Amino acid sequence: MTRDMAKSSTFTCSACGAVHNRWSGRCDACGEWNTIVEEAPLSTGPKGKTLGGKRGAQLTLTDLSTEEAPPPRTLSGIGELDRVLGGGLVPSSAVLVGGDPGIGKSTLLLQAAARFAGAGLKTFYVSGEEASAQVRMRAQRLGLENAPVKLAAATSLRDILTTLEAEKPDLVIIDSIQTMWSDTVEAAPGSVSQVRAAAHELTTFAKRFGTSVILVGHVTKDGQIAGPRVVEHMVDCVLYFEGERGHQFRILRSVKNRFGPADEIGVFEMTGGGLAEVANPSELFLSGRGAPSPGSVVFSGIEGTRPVLVEMQALVAPTPHAQPRRAVVGWDGARLAMILAVLEARCGIPFAGLDVYLNVAGGLRISEPAADLAVAAALLSAREDTPLPSETVIFGEISLSGALRPVGQSENRLKEAQKLGFTSAIIPSGGKTGGTSGLSLTRMGDLTAFVGDIFGAG
């Protein structure tokens, strides 16, 4: 045994657990004989880089079975926000909200702070980007100047944590995490190390003191929350506030939620008095539809747990360029290229020499493959200049072989369409439809049969 290993070893009494620097025949703590044994170090490696020989407290292990009640939740009264949070705000939770500049994050959270404060939560709003007077002006414009919300403008993490520990609020909103700085990190505010340190300290504070913390995060030009990705792993819930500046609709989307379903959405409308919740987004997304026109198809999708009906619009026109243009708004461009290839390879319908434009009306972004059949129908309708019946919804996934595959929650999709007055639906064969006897269902097995029956080609 080398001298370094001898120094790193510890000697423990197996009777009472007392720790000794060297071995002896009798334990000085309990008086027992021959109970002191040598223990190996906790970890090995270079000195100062590993845990060494010092031991910590032993953890208490429990079974997976539990009788603990679900965490209590506080409802804000903003139904769309409560839906995205999974049924309300959970104590000790950390929520990260991201979105483009000017999309309405501060407006939404100020409205939420006023609602939570009115529900009995002691609520603090800490602004690192705006002065207190600017936040008060926004509150006055929204009619929230009398809400019992405490306001502060600060960026020092040490000052903020000291104040929160003294005041012990129920909810703290930090706007934004990129402006916070810790005096223990030698980096500028907004840097990766500062954002990581600030998020860690605030999340740890939430768990220790039972305070719910909502962090506002900046986004990059790609739409991702700026800073290290580890911040999204630290928090319990990650929300994205989406929307097009040209539309009044705003979508609050949950991409991570430890207390509820992910991919849930809440729909808001930007008005002069702030953000108003939209209880029936399908009706709103379809409100601008007129008479049936070529290239217009209604798709019945699922966002989280709610069905949403949205209009898919396509335009196909001859191109004057050698390379045809493919422009997509609200859908995946690679998915569009796949649909065009399947239509040409399996159905003999070429799009060479044609510009293709695809748009999801209302500013909504669709990501599920169930929209494949609706996109194909919109492309064919635009190419053939043939409108589809206005009271028909379409959904289904297209495989590379041209077969149509059933999608999940078909019954909920059809019930939403029936509720909004649609009378027929075109769906893949084999899907479970349940009690939707009020709709006339047309089942298709593959894309070739769909093209032949609906457009008389193929």
Automatic annotation (TrEMBL):
A motif (RadA KNRFG motif) lies at residues 256-260. GO terms for cellular component: cytosol. Residues 70-219 form the RecA family profile domain. DNA-dependent ATPase involved in processing of recombination intermediates, plays a role in repairing DNA breaks. Stimulates the branch migration of RecA-mediated strand transfer reactions, allowing the 3' invading strand to extend heteroduplex DNA faster. Binds ssDNA in the presence of ADP but not other nucleotides, has ATPase activity that is stimulated by ssDNA and various branched DNA structures, but inhibited by SSB. Does not have RecA's homology-searching function. Plays a role in repairing double-strand DNA breaks, probably involving stabilizing or processing branched DNA or blocked replication forks. PANTHER family: DNA REPAIR PROTEIN RADA, DNA REPAIR PROTEIN RADA-LIKE PROTEIN. One of its GO terms (molecular function) is ATP-dependent DNA damage sensor activity. Pfam families: AAA_25, ChlI, Zn_ribbon_LapB. ATP binds at G99, D100, P101, G102, I103, G104, K105, S106. The middle region has homology to RecA with ATPase motifs including the RadA KNRFG motif, while the C-terminus is homologous to Lon protease. This is DNA repair protein RadA. InterPro entries: AAA+_ATPase, DNA_repair_RadA, P-loop_NTPase, RecA_ATP-bd, Ribosomal_Su5_D2-typ_SF, Ribsml_uS5_D2-typ_fold_subgr, Rubredoxin_2. The gene is radA. GO terms for biological process: recombinational repair. The keyword Lyase does not apply. Belongs to the RecA family. RadA subfamily. Residues 355-458 are annotated as: Lon-protease-like.
